[in-house]
Amino acid sequence: MSDVQAPLVLFRNLASDARQQLLHELEARVSDDGRHLIVSRYRERYGNGSTVQRQEVHRRVPIATLLRWLARESTAR
């Protein structure tokens, strides 16, 4: 059985005005093997009419690298 965790939503915004609607989400999750943090950004923009623009970006960071960076940054301050 897989022990998949739901992503942690870091930011979610839904904005609209007379011309367009914008959905913007930023979330983080741990990879299935537990070695990477995956940060995902999703944007969806609806314009007047049927114009829809979608953008989704995923970045993988090894957790060991992230922990070394955190340790280095905490001692530098």
Describe the structure.
- A 4-stranded antiparallel β-sheet has the order 1-2-3-4.
- The protein has one helix spanning 63-76, and strands spanning 8-16, 20-30, 36-47, 52-62.
- The chain is built from 1 helix and 4 strands; from the N terminus they run ββββα.
- The protein is 18% helix and 56% strand.
- By secondary structure, it is α+β, with helices and mostly antiparallel strands.
- The chain has one domain: N-terminal domain of TfIIb.
Shape: elongated
N- and C-termini, Cα separation: 43 Å
Question: Which assembly state applies to the chains in this document?
Answer: single chain
CATH architectural grouping: Single Sheet
What is the β-strand count? Answer: 4
Overall average pLDDT: 89
Gyration radius over CA: 17 Å
* Regions with little confidence, pLDDT below 50 for 5+ residues: none
Order of helices and strands: EEEEH
How many H/I helical runs?
A: 1
The CATH topology is given as: N-terminal domain of TfIIb
Task: Give the helix/strand layout.
Elements: E1 8-16, E2 20-30, E3 36-47, E4 52-62, H1 63-76
What is the compact description of this entry?
The chain has 77 residues and is α+β, with helices and mostly antiparallel strands. It has one helix at residues 63-76; strands at 8-16, 20-30, 36-47, 52-62. It has one domain: N-terminal domain of TfIIb (Single Sheet).
